Amino acid sequence: MKKIFFTAGPSELYFTVEQHLKNAIRDGIASISHREKAYVRMQQETTEGLKALLQVPDNYTIGFTSSATEVWDRMSENLIDKHSLHLVNGAFSEKFYKAASALGKEAKAIVAKPGQNHDLSSLQVDDRTELISITQNETSTGAAMPIEDITTFRAAHPKPLLAIDAVSSLPIPEFDFNQMDSLYFSVQKSFGLPAGLGVWLFNNRCVERAEELKSNGKYHDSYNSILKIAKMAAKHQTTCTPNVLNIYLLGKVVQDMLNKGIGQIRQEARYKSALLYQLFESHPKLKAFVTDKKYRSMTVGVADVENGSEALMNKLAEKGLIIGNGYGEFKNKHIRIASFPTHSKEQMEMLVDEINQLDF
To answer: Of 75, 127, 252, 278, which is least surrounded by CB within 10 A?
Structure first.
């Protein structure tokens, strides 16, 4: 039985990945050295494709890490002397706060209840704050921050570096990269690739901040520090042996998305998301966890399940439809359903129809 993964990551592979994998094996991509000219060309194609897809300005660097989780440590080590502010509204936004704290930073967390979000217009920011972290799409709860709210907030607080977690939402949100300084994501979610690669986009303000900390003896020159990433990325290389195969696949999928058109991908995302929330609002045993429609994610729909999620998940799995369980404290209480670019409208319609027909 062929399975379809609607999990929030790792998720269903993008529908073109199988052929790209075959081509990679045929062409020996997994065996080339990351210092070869062939690799340099490949990384350049991948980063240039990403910049075109996401409309990234020229003052940004695109670097590669082992995961998005690694970026939390690198930002804490390279961009923060003491004071960071973390807007926590779920498990993953909290993890960055804990990572910064564990590295000795005087991190501050402003916590919203899970399933809710922060009113950025009323947020007070300490003058000492060096970096502000906003999780645009909280994968654990399905709460998302509207882009226009982030833009308005940045205008009110231009001094601190603004770091955006877009791990499970890109390429769907249309970010204005001039209104932020750092953004990162993982490829195993909306880009539909195997896990094992983080992508970190940062601008010249971040590089200048790192250089300032380094000159003051407050910079951690770790193996994958931001200044090393920036230096090597300028040559379309990495600081250490990267996930060559995934960088190749990312470049190919990005080109596929460019060929399809990001406008069409975003339009389909709105339709698929509307299907999910209509299901949550109409089904007698489901209830959308994010009650304020303004803050509902377009890529990860989360619902409370009456009497728990296990029966529904098991019955769908019998049909080859794999959805996600609740995260952390909400395990076996919630379902989490991804509607990423690889999930077709027809697949989402089929999933919704199956849930409506099941007795659970």
So the answer is: 127
